[in-house]
Design brief:
- This protein has helices spanning 2-25, 35-53, 60-82, 84-90, 105-111, 115-124, 181-186, 191-199, 231-234, and strands at 95-99, 102-103, 133-138, 144-148, 171-175, 178-179, 209-214, 220-224.
- The chain is of the alpha+beta class.
- A hairpin with a 2-residue loop joins strand 5 and strand 6 (178-179).
- Helix 1 runs parallel beside helix 3 (60-82), helix 2 runs antiparallel to helix 3 (60-82) and helix 3 (60-82) packs across helix 4.
- The radius of gyration is 26 Å and the shape is flat.
């Protein structure tokens, strides 16, 4: 019983310390971690895992190790921020893989980034034809940035000398069948109004709705609990 109590206290103390240090050293986008940040997380995970798995191991050295790793990570981030030469040496900076519509093979080879990965990344950008691409850049996070050729760029209101209308964020009204009454009131609507709008989607009860949101202008989006046919159930991609 004592072992379980020790493990619980270790997990709580480490997580509390880890959260405090992360908040103090700066915000990171978890999906776009630079290389050194990623390595720091791996090392911290190993240190914490050993501490939790071995209750007989002294706990304070683990806390010190976590603090030291976070401090080093913070110091490296500061160096990378103010010294671009060092940053280029120890990080993967933005690298062009398509230039003037042509693959830059040497850059792809250096990054160990095969054509298949580039194609997949482009499809995620809704680009299925390489003829549309002028430049493609692999960012330090591993994501791809794309500049389309001029003839494939979308026409903007400014190009047509039209006045663009301001768009507002949609607000959730129903989540997993549950009404968000506070949001409904903030939009100056009531349940009667919502029921009338839902009726246009053949919805009689909130429990039929998986997600619904509404813009301040009153435009409603509704996704029902019942799912449509799954494309992947019929075809292999």
């Amino acid at each position: 019983m004592m072992i379980y109590l020790i493990i619980t206290l270790r997990i709580v103390s480490i997580m509390a310390l880890f959260l405090f240090l992360i908040l103090k050293t700066g915000r990171r986008k978890l999906s776009e971690l630079p290389v050194y940040d990623f390595l720091s997380i791996i090392v911290i995970g190993s240190v914490i895992g050993a501490d939790i798995a071995e209750p007989d191991v002294p706990h304070l050295p683990t806390l010190f190790a976590v603090v030291l790793i976070i401090v080093l990570q913070y110091l490296v981030s500061c160096v990378l921020l103010y010294n671009k030469k060092i940053a280029r040496k120890i990080t993967f900076g933005p690298t062009v893989v398509i230039q003037n519509g042509q693959f830059i093979k040497s850059n792809m080879k250096r990054l160990k980034y095969p054509v298949e990965n580039v194609m997949m990344a482009l499809r995620e950008k809704d680009i299925f034809d390489l003829n549309e691409v002028e430049f493609a850049i692999i960012e330090g996070s591993g994501n791809i940035s794309v500049l389309k050729k001029p003839e494939f760029l979308p026409v903007t209101p400014s190009d047509m000398k039209l006045k663009a209308e301001q768009k507002n964020l949609a607000v959730p009204l129903i989540i997993d069948g549950k009404l968000q009454e506070g949001n409904l009131k903030q939009l100056n609507h009531d349940k009667a109004w919502l029921a009338k709008q839902l009726a246009q989607f053949d919805v009689q009860n909130y429990s039929e709705v998986f997600f619904a949101d509404c813009t301040p202008e009153g435009k409603l989006f509704v996704s029902k609990m019942t799912e449509t046919d799954n494309f992947n159930d019929k075809f292999d991609l």
